[in-house]
Automatic annotation (TrEMBL):
Residues bound to substrate: N75, H81, D88, M102, S103, R112
GO biological process: amino acid biosynthetic process; aromatic amino acid family biosynthetic process; chorismate biosynthetic process; quinate catabolic process
Subunit and interaction comment: Homododecamer.
SUPFAM superfamilies, A to Z: Type II 3-dehydroquinate dehydratase
Protein name, UniProt field: 3-dehydroquinate dehydratase
Family: Belongs to the type-II 3-dehydroquinase family.
MF-aspect GO terms: 3-dehydroquinate dehydratase activity
Annotated positions for site Transition state stabilizer: R18
Keyword Protein biosynthesis annotated: no
Reaction equation(s) it catalyzes: 3-dehydroquinate = 3-dehydroshikimate + H2O
Metabolic or biological pathway: Metabolic intermediate biosynthesis; chorismate biosynthesis; chorismate from D-erythrose 4-phosphate and phosphoenolpyruvate: step 3/7
Keywords: Amino-acid biosynthesis, Aromatic amino acid biosynthesis, Lyase
Gene designation: aroQ
Database matches in CDD domains: DHQase_II
Amino acid sequence: MKKMLMLHGINHNMFGKRDPKQYGTVTLAEIDARLQALGRELDVEVESFQTNHEGEMCERIHQAYADGVDAVLINAGAWTHYSYGIRDALAILTVPIVEIHMSNIHAREPFRHHSVFAEIAKGQICGFGSESYLLGLRAALAALADH
């Protein structure tokens, strides 16, 4: 069974309460439950991790390398736009990385248009709300076929 790691970044524990216009009312627990359900359908194990601490995110990425996960999905939130520490941790991985955003970051504030992860990610999915996560899981699985 393939193992995927879903990394949720800063402030994602507030989904359902935070800016419903951009992120809807779905909670992080609901997103993770949907990922688990799709994972079972696709015969993929999905582990989710969320933190508001950049160093903890880097340490979890290091652990993913040690654990030999097959792919990483990441919605790093605001860290996407400036965290070279997380980018460097992700660059250690030799597996497909799929960047996910619920909102269309390219249609928002100019600082959100740039991703420091873009050049090391297999691809980016954004703008489809919580469905972005399910699309990301499917994309990661497809990327493994090419990997």
